[in-house]
Write a structure and sequence with these properties.
Elements: H1 8-30, H2 41-56, H3 64-86, H4 91-107, H5 122-145, H6 156-165, H7 171-192, H8 196-213, H9 216-234, H10 239-262, H11 270-294, H12 320-329, H13 340-374, H14 376-392, H15 396-401, H16 405-409
């Protein structure tokens, strides 16, 4: 792999600005959640060195692999580098980070050949996707979905549990696949073929599904995927992605300067709470909590999944997210979801991280192969949310069935 310097300058600026935000805003206001760290010259040098190496090894190609790796570079790898550099993390966290980064960066470059089940014309795929969506909506309505129909975003938690209790357990798999894969795919394909009446129909289906299931991701996910498709299909340079993330970090900096310097406000910033804390630094902080707990306690060995539960007994009686929520946040109902590092380590330590990382790297190579066949913009747009959730907030095995990964590949 040749060095690629186009991402280096903005990566270094991004690490510098986000390091300042992390140490001056995240740690002081949210230390009780598990954020920790103090500034040291050595830590700053380490974070910049990691940024230099990881950015220089991003592939120079313009494909699904490149676009995904650049997004993950700013959303996960650089934030993890910042967290590790200032928080005196255990060696296992450094090694886990290195395993995941190397697997995704190098294994995703393998030239795989996509498996083709059959060849269908686009209009037939559109009919099949919309047919499946309408069938799912009909099933949801038949089991009482319309009785708890509500479009008030502020009241989703009030109706969500009631709506779920009216459905058979298996429909949980159906709903997630429809919301995560079918509706976004229908929207993107409709845009691609300029069938704007189908765009309206897909958006209407998204609203109906939200009203019956009360999950915000159903409402906001499909439009976000459609915007990603428009963005990637019109992107003239990979540096555009860098500029977007640099703009986000500068926006967070401007909010802090406004709060601290102009109006002398001492409370936490809203934008930084939503973006810097929740989106950027919470996933790597939770990875740290998983490694802290399971390095000293018994691991799951996939006993919490249907695949491993027949062979190994769950030592805790609950899944990892609820266990960590109870142990570190004193809330048994809190689901502290994590991705490849946390879930891999919880199952089998560094071996689990390696298994998940290698599988994930091959998955990205396969998606890149499909991108060469049917268009990188389309594949990147419909897969990015699933890929990012696997890296940061979802167990890989759970993603295969519950989050629609298997259906996405089909």
């Amino acid at each position: 792999m040749t060095l690629n310097t186009r991402h280096v300058p903005i990566s270094l600026i991004y690490v510098a600005t986000m390091s300042w935000i992390y140490l001056s805003e995240i740690v002081p206001y949210w230390a009780y959640m598990g954020f920790k760290g103090t500034f040291t010259t050595g830590g700053f040098a380490l974070s910049m060195a990691i940024a230099l190496v990881t950015s220089a090894l991003i592939p120079a190609t313009r494909d699904t692999r490149m676009a995904t790796l650049v997004c993950m570079h700013y959303l996960f790898f650089l934030p993890t580098a910042i967290y590790l550099s200032y928080s005196a993390a255990p060696l296992e966290h450094y090694l886990s980070f290195a395993i995941v980064w190397a697997s995704l960066t190098f294994l995703s470059g393998l030239q795989l050949r996509p498996t083709v089940i059959t060849s269908l014309k686009p209009k037939y795929i559109l009919f099949m996707v919309f047919g499946a969506i309408i069938l799912a909506l009909g099933i949801q309505a038949a089991f009482g979905g319309l009785q708890s129909f509500n479009l008030d975003i502020e009241r989703v938690y009030e109706f969500r549990r009631e709506a779920a209790s009216n459905l058979p357990m298996i429909f949980g798999y159906v709903y997630s696949n429809v919301a995560s894969v079918l509706v976004p795919l229908a929207l993107v394909l409709s845009f691609k073929f300029r069938a704007y009446w189908l765009v309206a129909l897909a958006l209407a289906c998204s609203v109906l599904l939200f009203g019956m299931t009360h999950h915000k991701s159903v409402l906001f996910g499909p439009p976000a995927v459609a915007l990603l498709y428009v963005f990637f299909s019109r992107m003239k340079s990979p540096r555009t992605i860098d500029v977007i993330f640099m703009t986000i970090s500068l926006l967070c900096v401007l909010e802090l300067l406004y709060l601290r310097v102009i109006i002398d406000h001492t409370g936490a910033g809203y934008i930084n709470s939503l973006i810097s804390r929740r989106l950027i630094f919470v996933p790597t902080m939770l990875d740290g909590l998983y490694i802290d707990f399971f390095s000293a306690n018994e691991k799951y060995y996939w006993s919490e999944s249907r695949i491993g539960s027949w062979a190994v007994e769950n030592p805790y009686g609950v899944t990892g997210p609820f266990l960590i929520g109870s142990e570190y946040f004193s809330d048994a109902d809190m689901s502290a979801n994590t991705g490849v590092i946390g879930s891999g380590y919880a199952n089998a330590g560094l071996l689990g991280v390696a298994i998940y990382s290698v599988t994930f790297g091959l998955l990205l190579a396969l998606l890149n192969a499909y991108g060469r066949r049917i268009g990188h913009a389309l594949v990147t747009a419909v897969s990015l949310t699933t890929v990012s959730s696997i890296l940061m907030s979802t167990d890989l095995l759970t993603a295969i069935l519950t989050h629609g990964l298997l259906l996405l590949l089909v």
